[in-house]
Structure formats: structure tokens, C-alpha cells
Amino acid sequence: HLPTAELQALDAAHHMHPFTTNDDLTAKGVRVIARAKGVYLTDTDGNEILDAMAGLWCVNLGYGRPEMGQVAARQMNELPYYNTFFQTTHVPGIALAKELADLAPGDLNHVFFAGSGSEANDTNLRMVRTYWAELGKPEKSHVISRKNAYHGSSMGSGSLGGMTYIHEQGGMPIPGIHHIGQPDWWSEGGDMTREDFGLARARELEEKILELGAENVAAFIGEPVQGAGGVIIPPSTYWPEIQRICRKHDVLLIADEVICGFGRTGNWFGAQTFDIIPDIMTVAKGLSSGYAPIGASIVNDKVAKVINACEFSHGYTYSGHPVCAAVALENLRIMHEENMLDHIRNVAAPALQNALSALEDHPLVGETARSGMMASIALTPHKESRAAFASPKGDVGYMCREHCFANNLVMRHVGDRMVISPPLVITPEEIEVFATRARKALDATYADLKDKD
Ligand code: PLP
């Protein structure tokens, strides 16, 4: 391939990147990733970078699994495409729907496929509104979500999300979507205990339902652990109370499992980790370990009965794409074969916990938090008071992220919280490499801050 500098120049000239400014591409130079194996990326300069984010929280199996490519090639040769509209279907679509129905908790037995998490959440929005309209309650159409949630980038899913800087572009949220507080005890819990704060934040849902009128509220959507919002692990009191409130007011509960699904929190789904049974789950990312673009809404019997009885005028050309479905099936087969949940619970998560605990003595680290294999490190100038930095929010996190890059580590920042979501296959030895590089990045960030003082 061309030399890195030429690739960077071509990229800056022609390639529009999501969530990136031109400055990021030209002044700092974009990293060109050439190949990857296991948990390591290799860039065009030959640097080996430990990917503690599994791409965008998705490459759960790790990179370069030959079986995945073989299955994709076989399916491309056999049936590269057919749609699932009207009265047609195909074997990979059927098999994947059955597998997901088997894995999902409760009576979530029905699967509507999409090409991504955004598309699946758009499906959910239309599906819950259609559900109530079909039951003769078209006014039961409002959906409640949370501040700082991320549910995707399309108009519907972006509106469900609660990030104001996203809403500011393009006229979001669309009407009928409301956002309540997130269960972020570290930043917002003040003097309350975690448990009391969890209950208080859950009860904001009830307040919002009563304000809107339960007869007007179709659904509540939340990520079991808010991912892009900063790996916000809710207090144990939060989700059971949310479930109780939804049931009491006949509001459908949607768990967005796009990050939490498929082992990330130590169970197949985050709903199981937090002991709830939603009506609908959104899945994507880890469904195929990011090897093929696929998402889905997994729906319970009650909702499916109504939706299947009407003509739900919704679907995507690539709903249940046979190659993506075959790749997802292979991903799940490997997860079973390699006892991935056992690896997470008994090997990877304890090793990650040790690494995080060891970092807690660092002067910049306020707390570390972890659910299964998703974790975060809160940076603070003052541990005891959980204070925020005086500099604009996110500056220190950004500095730390850059120092991670310089130390060949991908760790993302959300504000001043570093977030971690490595491939689930990561070994204790690789977690040690992560910890050494993370400490170097923290030290360099600390030194920069001291220089500024
Ligand atoms: N939901 C959650 C919880 C996500 O984290 C994301 C993406 O990061 C999405 C939905 C959107 O998924 P996609 O990027 O596949 O559209």
C-alpha cells in the first residue's frame, strides 16, 4: 500500500469520518489500521496497538478468526442475498432467529432483523407505537429515555439517545421523546448512598409517566449499563425499580443490549445481570463480533402477537441478510464452543478487576468501576470529594486518551472517565500489558497537569 503520509493525505481529502473534526485528521494525523489479530491492531507504520475497546465495543471474539471468514465465503457462494420481506425467508435467518429466541430471557421469542443498532432502535420506536395503536390506544406513543444515553445516530435512534450535542445537529429529538436523569452516582449522587440514589433516579421515571399521563406513555428504553455515556453502572436498586414502575403503568420496557449483550456484562444479556425481563431487547455489535453488520429487536410473545397480526410496514433491504446471519451464527457457535461466559467470569473479569484495583492508587484515579468486561476509570483532581477538573469537561480525559495512543493502547474517554471494553477473549497476560500501558498514560497525563499548574 501507499506510505502512511500519503494515505493520511488522501483520507483527509476524501474520507468523511463520524464524530471527527477536520483538525483531528489533518493536525494530528489519522492512524491507518492495516490488520489485526486477537486483541492487537497493527497500523501501517507497524505499531502493535492493544485494543482495549474491541473496536467500537464489538469485536468480542477478537480479530482475525479464520472460521468467520470461511463461513462468510461459504454463504456468499451459496446464497449471497435474499430478502425476508413478504413471504420469503432463508436458512441462516431462521437459524439465527431460533438461536436468539433460545438465548434471550423470559418469553422473548421473536426476532426482527436490522442492519445495525440504530436501525433496530428505529424499529423499536415504530414497533411500540404500532403495538399500542393496534390495541386502540394511538395516544400511548410517548417514549422515555435517559440523558446521556446512546441509542444510535438515525433520527429516531438519535432522538431516543440523550446526548444534547447530538440533538443540536439536525433537529432532534423528534416529538414525543423525553429524557430523565441517568443513574450516575459518581458525578451526581452527592451525599446519597448509591442505593438511595439508584431508587431516586428510577423514581424519576414514575414522575415523568405521571406528568405525561400513563395513558400516553408507550415505552421506556435504557442500556443496562450506559456505555457511550461513560460506562455508568447503575446501583443495584435501579433496574428492579424501573421494571416495577413499567409494569405498574403498563409501559413497555426496552433494554438496549447493543453493547451489554453477548457476554459483555458476564451473562448473555445485561438484563440478566441486572435481574430484569424486558419486553424488547435491541442487539447488534457483539451479535456478530463486528465481523458483519447486523442488528435485531428481540420481542416477547405479547408484543409479537400484536405486531404479527397487523402488517407492520417496516423493514430494511438487509433485514436478516443471509451472510451477516451466517456470520452471527458462527460467532455464537464459537462463543458456546469456547465457553466464553466461563472465560469471562473465571479468568478475564477477575484479571481485569485486579488490574483496575491496582490502578486505584494512582493520584488521578477517583474510582474504577466494572461490570463483567466493561469498565471505567474516573479521573479526578480530588478522590474524596469526587470533584471534577476545573478545565472544560473532557480535557483531561482527552489528554489521557492521547497518551494511551502514544503508548500503543486504545482506551476511549467519555468526559473525564476512561472507558474499557476489550475483546472478551483477552488473556490475563494481555490484561497486564493493558495495565502497564494504562499506568504510563496516566503518569504522562498527571505530569502534563503538573506542568500546567
Ligand atoms: N445502542 C447502543 C447502546 C450503542 O452503544 C450503539 C452504538 O454504539 C447503538 C445503539 C447504535 O448501534 P449502531 O452504531 O450499530 O447503529
TrEMBL record:
One of its GO terms (molecular function) is transaminase activity. Its cofactor is pyridoxal 5'-phosphate. Keywords: Aminotransferase, Pyridoxal phosphate, Transferase. This is Aspartate aminotransferase family protein. InterPro entries: Aminotrans_3 (IPR005814), Aminotrans_3_PPA_site (IPR049704), PyrdxlP-dep_Trfase (IPR015424), PyrdxlP-dep_Trfase_major (IPR015421), PyrdxlP-dep_Trfase_small (IPR015422). GO terms for cellular component: cytosol. Belongs to the class-III pyridoxal-phosphate-dependent aminotransferase family.
